[in-house]
Amino acid sequence: MTASAMTFRSLDGFFAYEAATAEGINRPASKLFDQYTRIPTSWHAFRHHISSLAISADAVKVLYFIRHAEGHHNAAEKHHGTTVWDHSVSKQDAYLDAELNAAGIADASKRSISMRGELDAGMPLDRILVSPLTRTVQTANLYFNLTPPTTSQVPVHAIESARETLGVHTCDKRRPTASLEADFPHIDWSRIEPNVDILWHPSHRETTDEIHARCRDFLREVFHTVPDTYLAVVSHGGFIQACMDVLGMPSYKPANCEVVPVVVAMTSALNPINNHLVEDDDDISCMSPLLLAIVVVVIAKWVKYATMHGR
């Protein structure tokens, strides 16, 4: 399958947007998903439905996008206003690869309780992918209690393609990899090359089309190089919203610390007849050989009887 022929879309039936007031849909006990509700009644049922999709196992991913907690740059934009921020303040070196502020640290720490509750309830998670900026790594540390000496049982990898909108704003410029590795040695930085940030440009801010293209690159990278199905992606508001656009989801910029869950499939890999769940009751090919033989015999006898009696 060529990269140009590969497209991605979100699948319905797993998470409902703004479904808290929808009749018949259960709200999870925790508030991990602010604007989404899991539709299957339990994580066990959720996993069963995923495994029942008429799609090859390597063509579906469950992504839990998490926007980083509030950083010093977010507070500065609120203080100065977006116009002043974009025009001048955002270009100051004081906000280079901005860290979380006290409010962000408190928020992410609080959210970790909800995350722990869902994981204990069976929420599947195979791997954590994190944008290689300081605030996203700090958020992942707090959300998943990764800070040493705690040892995570889930691998954590930095991934360059999940960065925020590139260019101009110094908060979105990555520090050298060596510096990040020294500060966060428990993160796998092997995907981040070279040492210096060559993606960020001081005078060009990534356009909507460009970040959408990067989202598709991110999805291709995830589907081709990450073998796991259930992935947390700790990233940024602009990037997550762009992914939502690309996947055909309701488009909005998530709040700091918000989790946006989605089931993603490569559309070219979908079963052309049934791209949702395999329903055994509706598919004769799912019958056991013995049952199928009995059905054939019964039908044959009925046809013979009807023929003999002129029916």
What's the structural blueprint in terms of helices and strands?
Layout: E1 8-10, E2 15-17, E3 36-38, H1 43-51, E4 60-67, H2 72-80, H3 82-87, H4 102-120, E5 127-130, H5 134-144, E6 156-158, H6 177-183, H7 208-225, E7 230-235, H8 237-246, E8 259-266, H9 289-308
Parallel strand pairs: 4-7, 5-6, 5-7
Antiparallel strand pairs: 1-8, 2-3, 4-8
Helix content: 25-40%
Taking all Cα atoms into account, the compactness measure Rg is 24 Å
Biggest β-sheet: strands ordered side by side in the sheet: 1-8-4-7-5-6
CATH class: Alpha Beta
* Number of helices, counting only DSSP H or I runs of 4 residues or more: 9
Under the CATH scheme, the architecture is 3-Layer(aba) Sandwich
Structural class designation:
alpha/beta
Report the average pLDDT across residues. 85
Approximate shape: globular
Strand content: 5-15%
Show unreliable segments.
19-29, 269-298
Pfam families: His_Phos_1
Organism: Aphanomyces astaci (Crayfish plague agent)
GO molecular function: phosphatase activity
Protein name: Phosphoglycerate mutase
